[in-house]
Design a protein that fits this description.
Aspartate Aminotransferase, domain 1; 3 domains; alpha/beta; 4-stranded antiparallel sheet; 470 residues; globular; Aspartate Aminotransferase, domain 2
């Protein structure tokens, strides 16, 4: 049987890697054996006894209600099309075509898709910047308040917390501001589905006043890809409209495997989450001790931040200027460790309740040996990384830019051109330029720096060509 995708995944699994990437079940370790071994028999459809995702009355309704209780929501819906589906549904529920929405510039690609699909007029706000690691940080409450003051007709605010690096904004302060202005707060909490289940972690957004929260269970819980939740805790959100939007956006053939895994993940975390996360946190603190004293690396912790908080289960290691991509490659090739992502300067590892002390000890050993190999090279110094480019000028709307004729030009010659496509370092999937915005030398240099260092940027084609209007 020739099945190239199956063969590729089988080869990866057979190599017995140490996976510090999503999904959170870590190649089945965190899921019940009975579910994993009998997976095919759970792949059913809407028949008597299995309920209907779009009009639940029985088992799915009960499972969603139990999830709402576990996650501190008034209402929870299962998402089988990932958090992307929840983000799009939330945006369409809160906004009509032409409405303004205040949006964190560090949002995921799905938010930009929603802007284009629903004809939303975005008001972008920039996150703070962490110069030690060269990454975006929190969304400042003062920045949110200024946008609310400057754009009183905005329907709401959409921000990301935690971000890909585990940095959490002060949702309590932000939600109070948003509600004082009579608006709705949507939090893309894709990386925070586990937060509510241990008091040592930052508070989840539902417990800090968010109206809508979208969580990717498959990222940090023992759930199958692309299982996710959308939670609502607000009288200001039109639940009926949200349900209609979910019916429109979700497949009419939902995966019962994914829904079962959402139900299982909720049950595991509700019953044992606190103790499982305690064990994980102990392993993470032991990991930190094992890599302490390596003088050419830096570990992102809450102490690294002037404001906000950090989720310690998101392990971020600064490896030195332009060493992130190389470190990921060496860990994979020499130690059979696959991290979640790397950027110019850092590696990012996702640790979940499916990981154990042995996994983290292997990671510590790998990082130590890679760092020691770097120390011998004079070029390795912890320089302040290149700053993330400022938001470029918007010349025309996104939909107009996407619909106009376009051409490809070498990115080095794109200064002054209007983008007709996204340029998105992936991961983490946050565009540096979107359709309708104007290319600058700063953006071009930043993107080429990522490519030259070995990173992947979606939106660059062939011999470093990009799509522009014209």
């Amino acid at each position: 049987m020739k099945a190239p995708l199956f063969d590729a995944i089988e080869k990866y699994a057979a190599s017995r890697p140490v996976p510090f990437h999503m999904p959170g079940h870590k190649m089945g370790k965190g899921l019940p054996e009975a579910f994993c071994s009998g997976m095919a028999k759970y792949d059913v459809t809407e028949i008597p006894g299995t309920d209907n995702l779009h009009f639940p009355e029985d088992a799915i309704l009960m499972a969603q209600d139990m999830a709402a209780e576990a996650f501190g929501a008034d209402k929870t819906f299962f998402l089988v099309n990932g958090s992307t589906c929840g983000v799009l549904a939330a945006m369409r529920t809160v906004c009509r075509p032409g409405d303004r929405l205040i949006i964190g510039r560090d949002c995921h690609r799905s938010v930009y898709n929603g802007i284009s699909m629903w004809g939303i007029d975005p008001v972008f706000i920039n996150p703070a910047y962490n110069p030690e690691f060269g990454i975006s940080s929190i969304t400042e409450p003062s920045v949110v308040e200024k946008a609310l003051t400057d754009y009183p007709d905005a329907k709401g605010v959409l921000i990301t917390s935690p971000n890909y690096y585990g940095i959490c904004s002060d949702i309590s302060k932000i939600s109070k501001l948003v509600h004082d202005y009579g608006k709705i707060l949507i939090v893309d909490e894709a990386h925070g589905a586990h937060l509510r289940f241990n008091r040592k972690l930052p508070l989840c957004s539902m417990d800090q006043g968010a109206d809508i929260s979208i969580q990717s269970a498959h990222k940090t819980l023992p759930a199958l890809t692309p299982g996710a939740f959308i939670h609502i805790k607000s009288k200001s959100v039109d639940i009926d409209k949200l349900q209609r939007n979910l019916r429109m956006l979700q497949t009419t053939s939902p995966s019962y495997l994914v829904m079962c895994s959402l139900d299982i993940a909720r049950a595991i975390m509700q019953e044992k989450g606190e103790s499982l996360l305690d064990d994980l946190l102990d392993s993470i603190y032991n990991f930190r001790k094992q890599i302490a004293g390596i003088n050419c690396i830096s570990v992102l912790t809450g102490d690294s931040l002037q404001k906000g908080s950090h989720d310690p289960t998101r392990i971020v290691i600064g490896m030195g200027c332009k060493r992130g991509f190389e470190t990921e490659k060496l860990l994979r090739e020499k130690f059979n460790i696959q991290v979640e992502m790397s950027d110019m300067n850092n590696i990012v590892c996702i640790a979940t309740v499916s990981d154990n002390n042995e996994d983290l000890s292997k990671l510590a050993c790998g990082i130590r040996q890679v760092a020691e190999s770097f120390q011998a090279e004079e070029s390795l110094r912890f320089k302040v990384p290149s700053r993330i480019p400022d938001t470029p000028e918007r010349a025309i709307g996104m939909r107009e830019a996407e619909d106009l004729p376009q051409r490809k030009v070498p990115i080095r010659n794109a200064n002054g051109c209007i983008a007709s496509d996204y340029l998105t370092p992936y991961p983490p999937g946050i565009p540096v330029i979107i359709p309708g915005e104007v290319y600058t030398d700063e953006i071009i240099g930043y993107v080429l720096g990522i490519v030259d260092a070995g990173g992947k940027v979606n939106g660059i084609y062939g011999k470093q060509l990009v799509n522009v209007v014209g």
